[in-house]
Amino acid sequence: MSLDKLMEKFLEQSMEAEDNFYRLEEQRLQAEDKRREEEHSRELQMLQMLGQIFNGISTPSPAPQQYSKSSKAILQLYVEQTDILRSFSLGTARMDSVIPLVRKTIPPLTSKKHKGQDGRIGIIGGCQEYTGAPFFAAISALKVGADLSHVFCTKDAAPVIKSYSPELIVHPVLDGPNAVEEIEKWLPRLHSLVVGPGLGREEMLLKNAKEIIERAKLRGIPIIIDADGLWLVAKEPSVIQGYQRGILTPNFMEFTRLYEAMHHEPLDSTDHKRSAQQLSIAMGHLTLVLKGEEDIITDGKNMLTCSQEGSGRRCGGQGDLLSGSLDSCAHWAFSSSPDATKGMNPSLVAAFGATSLTRQCNRQAFHKHSRSTTTSDMIQEISSAFKKLFES
């Protein structure tokens, strides 16, 4: 078969796979709508039954009233369902109170500080095929307010990433013979890491990334894992499992891969919140940011839902803006006093701040560029979006 025929067949298969994905996603959304309607109906029925029970309690009776086993069962079921609903609506109920916590973690700008004090950020990723992702993550960290942004990439990727911006410090070491040792020398100077943007899936690069994660954990550095870093975690969950300063930021497909790797069973796509909570618990209460129509943030114990208005535009690179801004926010949150976050897990506060910011950037960029919106347009909105959310 000729090369042209092979390419044509490959493109047909790719288009078919994409069509299948969107068809399944539409079915999932329909199932989710149906589930919500059924859940609402059940809740109304329980409220009606509970009202009848309480009405019986409040009615005077000359003799002690005995309640049937069925009434007690209904009451118990209602209490259990209410607890579940309360835990899943925690984010929505407390959303307005989380933004002030994010604000309290943001370091004030003052002339008394020195360069690097507000954040020295590291990005592990960037290979011959993927140079945009590490750039987007690194420049977003700077735009949010970090002072220095390092990119540790392969030798081939370095000149390209350097050409995008003189603001970044680019190290062409990720595919070198002493990659881990070369990067480890920088770890004492870094406040947080993002692992995955543009990393690729070459075995050697994944192996180096794994070892870098292990050594960063020993130093207690916050680690955000995204993109191909999540591919590594799906293969070897123990690399980050149980590390309380680790944050995973999967999209739905990456989340599905992680869930099935941990639970060895198909994902129930009708209840994202419950599934996210289950995965977080299985990962040792690691903070998880499930990106989607609404961003679900959970550490298995608490849950926040970020529904900040964005847009329908989903261009490549938005996740890199999120991971880069989260890198800065994580450093600030973990450096803040417990009073600043009111005892809330700093990872949750940081993740909520970063997801809110990304959505606001998307909204503002879309308002200007509509269908033509790209991640570069969104990055240009970071300054005004940050000010609107956290400094107004």
TrEMBL record:
Cofactor(s) listed: Mg(2+)
CDD domains: YXKO-related
One annotated GO molecular function: ATP-dependent NAD(P)H-hydrate dehydratase activity
YjeF C-terminal domain boundaries: 98-389
Broadest EC class assigned to this enzyme: lyase
Pfam families reported for this sequence: Carb_kinase
Binding site for ATP: 291-295, 310-319
GO biological process: metabolite repair; nicotinamide nucleotide metabolic process
Cross-referenced Gene3D superfamilies: 3.40.1190.20
Binding residues annotated for (6S)-NADPHX, in chain numbering: 198, 251-257, 320
Keyword Ribonucleoprotein recorded: no
Superkingdom, natural source: Eukaryota
Catalysed reactions listed for this entry: (6S)-NADHX + ATP = ADP + phosphate + NADH + H(+); (6S)-NADPHX + ATP = ADP + phosphate + NADPH + H(+)
Residue ranges that the Swiss-Prot or TrEMBL entry lists as coiled coil: 7-34
Record-linked NCBIfam families: yjeF_cterm
Similarity section: Belongs to the NnrD/CARKD family.
Function, in words: Catalyzes the dehydration of the S-form of NAD(P)HX at the expense of ATP, which is converted to ADP. Together with NAD(P)HX epimerase, which catalyzes the epimerization of the S- and R-forms, the enzyme allows the repair of both epimers of NAD(P)HX, a damaged form of NAD(P)H that is a result of enzymatic or heat-dependent hydration.
HAMAP family xref list: NADHX_dehydratase (MF_01965)
Protein's name according to its UniProt entry: ATP-dependent (S)-NAD(P)H-hydrate dehydratase
Species of origin: Cyprinus carpio
